[in-house]
Structures
1.
Amino acid sequence: MSVMRLDDHQLAVRVTHRAAGIPAPENFKLVESAIPECPAGGVLVRVMLCAVDPAMRGWLSAEANYMTVPDGAVMRAHGVGEIIASNSSKWQVGEQVFGWLGWQRFAAIRESDLLWRIDTKIAPAESWLSIFGLNGLTAWVGFLHLARPLAGQTVLVTTAAGGVGSVVGQLAKAHGLRAIGIAGGREKIRRAVAQFGYDKAIDYHAADTPLSPQIAAACPSGIDIFFDNTAGHLADSVFPHLNVGARIIQCGTAAISSWLPPPTGPRRERDMLVKRLNWQGLVAFDHASLFPKALQELQDLHKAGKLIAESDILDGLENAPGSIQRLYRGENQGRLSIRP
């Protein structure tokens, strides 16, 4: 076994119990211990950055979800880090990597928990959690693979200045589409247009004008692709403006506080029939075979100056328990992560 020596201690954030709604500090506890041993056949990684994602809300819910983090476990999260010990023939000490590292300083994990190597000469570590991480891959898969965009079409994106939405806007611009964003607050509206490729952005916090007429004005030829991260009342305002044959990519449901009991609202079956809509759920992991191609194309766009990353980094794991709430309040300015 090869080892890089260092003096430190382990600090990890563990789940205490299921969350009712958005996970709060009381759903976690900080646990200090000795640095774990490198597992047989696995690696020990010093975590540089770990992610905070909207999907974590579902992972900690008592409701059925595609992924669950059990009580007592280290909070599951993507991260980037450096291998400091290895019992694996695939991964070597000193390599920088992206994978399931969790909210902790040191990750003693199986080699299969590492997904790919990163290169901080191409972009800084935080970019590998945003445009070259799950955010970028989700945007690429949902927009370019599932939504089948054509130059000249109109795409509307909710949470346009968020981690995924900001990448979708830039991909739309790079592929010749007209991009309309919905976001909350003047600063996010400004960034959506100035930095993330949107032709126009609508502030859903502004109460002086109803949302639906603003969408109609911004999309005079209707909407061909609806990339939705929120569901709820924002999506309700979008559906009347979808064109025949429009593609809906359901990436998130951030506007719904709880799915038990199921929320009521407008029924869209008639829209599905009359407009022949294609409404598809998106979980990026289902398309892992496309990740190498996606990463290469995302890196090519970044190198050409057509794809930027914006990061918001919290220093210290003591900030982790409240970070999901911060994300859902919209207080982050870019891809939210934690430097442990």
Note: The first helix runs from residue 56 to 59.
2.
Amino acid sequence: MIRPQPAAWFEIIAAADDACDIPKLLAAAGCAEIEPVASVQAAGIGQPGGNLPDGRNIYARITGWTSDAEKLAACLERSHARAVVHFPKAPEALQPPLILRNPGWIQPFEIFSRLVGMPGRFSADPSGLLMFVAPILFGYMFGDVLQGLALIVIGLALQWRWPMLRLLVAGGVAAVVFGFVFGAAGGIHGAVPALWVDPLAEPLPVLLVPIAFGGALLTLGLALTGLEAYWRGRLVNWLCRDAGFLTVYVGVLIAILHPAGQVLAVLGLAIQIFGRLWQERRIGAVFAAVGELLEKLAQISINTLSFVRVGAFAMAHAGLSSALVSMLKGVECTSAYVLLLVAGNAVIIVIEVLVASIQTTRLVLFEFFTRFFETTGREFRPLPPPESPEEIRNVPRT
């Protein structure tokens, strides 16, 4: 798990007659966000010669943030602009913009974070984790081998025009996997051997597994608050106030399957009480700690049960596919049967992509993110690129 990285502060001192071209140069490089600080304008800036009456040169000071200091310096050097750049400490009054540094295969999943806002400097960036979580939730609700393959093809074909459709590729792969798990292909259940169960034949396990997955995911979200507290230097405060709640929650989840979880839940209660006593040094803190713990347990129990909708929509997908096959039983013409089956699967794909995408997004944003995600950061916004290379005078694009 990584966190957003702050951009580096830069200062460029340039000859006045080059100062007008440098922002275009930085825009072409795509690695700078201008933020004027104590700017001073002098007569003659931008005019040929750029000299004061006594022969002294006029200079401009350009300040801002960069996502790549080496790229910015190399860009200025290649341009032959009369300018020097250095990277001092940023002014304390300014909030540095943040950058999500993820590999290309993780970047499509940054969309979930951006729907809420930029995570703070000491907040975890969940994009790498969502690369697994989002497809699993989507694929469970959309388990069908052939329909999943169709999503992969659509995503690969259109990802260059609409980059967000790269999410369909990951979702399609998960749908293929769960299609084999549920034994569904092209809307026909039993078309391939089921590795687990048929959702319509055995609904109870199909509903319970997502709840268990949700419990594990929310546990991870609570643990991330501890990691963020460590980054902020407030780990002791987290141990006194939140570690007990996490332990109780895990204990309750385990107690459903094994009595040993009860011991863990009692241990968590003790951590919560003694941690608050150690912090506040008063007996009233015990009642406050127990009350807060009960409130949090009620909230997270509702959050956990919300994941049952994943199993419910998996059953709905199976029911819709079963209804399609039942309606086509009376069709005797083979070509008409195949044509109607393909058309029916196309309708199911459109409906289920919308439903599964909405439910996946809802669970990620409102159940998982609320455990740890803080939108206190400011996103790095580089200068927009010039419309054409000719706008940069005597400067090659980098």
Note: Residues 334-368 form the longest helix (35 residues).
3.
Amino acid sequence: MTVLRSDKRLTDSPSILRGGHQLGPLIFFLLAMAVLVAVLVALRGPLPVAQTTINGLVTGAYFALGAAGLTLVFGILRLINFAHGDLLTFGAYIALATVYLGLPFWVAVIASVLITAATTLGFEAVIWDPLRRRGAGTLQMILTAIGLAFILRHGIQLIAGTNPQTLGVDVVSTFNVGPLTIGQTQAWVLIAGYLVLVLLGVMLRFSLLGKQLRALSDDLDLAEVTGIDSDRLILITQALSGGLAGLAGILFAASVGSITPNVGFFLLISLFSATILGGVGNAYGALVGGIALGLVQEWSTLVLDARWKTAIGFVVLVAMIIIRPTGLLGQKRLVDR
């Protein structure tokens, strides 16, 4: 009965993991992107735009997965996890180690997701839970997260070295879809990435677990009163965040072809950008923001040198903050617990 009360409350109230019903900014943003595509087609032609759109969707897949894990933790725990980008790197290196053992790539994917999820659970038990119980403030949590990021990064460097490493996947073979060309690995990244994104969205929207997570995000104390086990859901959130980070790291390494221990820092900047673009603490917003950021960055290569595409993503981010500081699907106010 208590769970039913929580579910009813979620149906009637806007959780920050749900995003409420503020679709106007999202529709306006989508129209703006449609106009941008029309301009690019007029300038460069439909084929180059379509080709870069494929690349943007690939980039958006691992951006969205990483940003979703980042925003889930913030939505539930109000934790700004600066170590999240290095968790992506950690997941990629776990996959790399599995491949070096001679195991198939699909085994490496499963191992990476599970081990990265288990690692985040270990961090929760050893670091985050004790800090919360001792009443650590936001500054202490942020500094701890930054320190944890350095520990992960330099630990990977100590074990694997600083040279670029490859997963050994085929990044050369391509096939044609009409006049368009897509790499075989890119195709698998697209399929796997968006399948997981769809499953994540469905889980958050329709499953009992998703409703409980939204209740915990909306009001932790009230969720506990209605019978929800907050400790169990916090562990699930951390494991889910870690698993998504591990998968995003693998997709990045597979699509790019190589990885270094420092790549997590640069990925983290894009993950934060996607999170803010979609709406801080909003899982659906993170999915939309990650895909949109990947598309805009790749479209920018049609008119600018590719080395500037990250900067273009930040131009979009700054413009969004100026126009709508809460992001595409963010609430007007985040209630502090």
Note: The first strand starts at residue 174 and ends at 177.
